[in-house]
Amino acid sequence: DGGITQSPKYLFRKEGQNVTLSCEQNLNHDAMYWYRQDPGQGLRLIYYSQIVNDFQKGDIAEGYSVSREKKESFPLTVTSAQKNPTAFYLCASSPRTGGRNTEAFFGQGTRLTVV
Amino acid sequence: GEDVEQSLFLSVREGDSSVINCTYTDSSSTYLYWYKQEPGAGLQLLTYIFSNMDMKQDQRLTVLLNKKDKHLSLRIADTQTGDSAIYFCAERSNQAGTALIFGKGTTLSVSS
To answer: What confidence tens digit (pLDDT) does each residue in B63-76 have?
Structure first.
């Protein structure tokens, strides 16, 4: 089955620790994205990658880092510099096809809680 | 800047129609999307509409697009309790590659 997998589903972190969220897709999509969701805030774009070995900051990149060494994988690291990291994190992927439909497919999310 | 606006809450009775409204900013948006999110889950694409269309119907779902007013709506006919979820309107960003920009989401509550 083709899809996008995020792991783990729940993650607990102590203050001051870095933590990495996994995102893997087997849809052969070029583009991948990370969004953060807070209650009443909708989805806000953290980072996006249009192609392997390239990524760009979104609206709220401070305190986060990413890598895109493989087409299938786009891990997100939440660093200790992120002041309010408790949130629901969603990874998505889409074809990178210019003016054509770029429907995004989402993973099931990772809920990160700082304890 | 880019912004997608939605009302935050809608409450309906089972069997009624639900209408969720959205306004977007980018008049050059070629595709506009409606996603559904159930509690604790990711987003699931419900439907999308191409900008040269005024209306798209898919079973119980009807999407209306008014490009002049940059207004998009999603009508759910014969709303069921299983339709209770958060509904997001989205447009493609013109500043962030192929990323989608989402509204804050409308929480639909269906009572029996």
So the answer is: 999 999 999 999 99
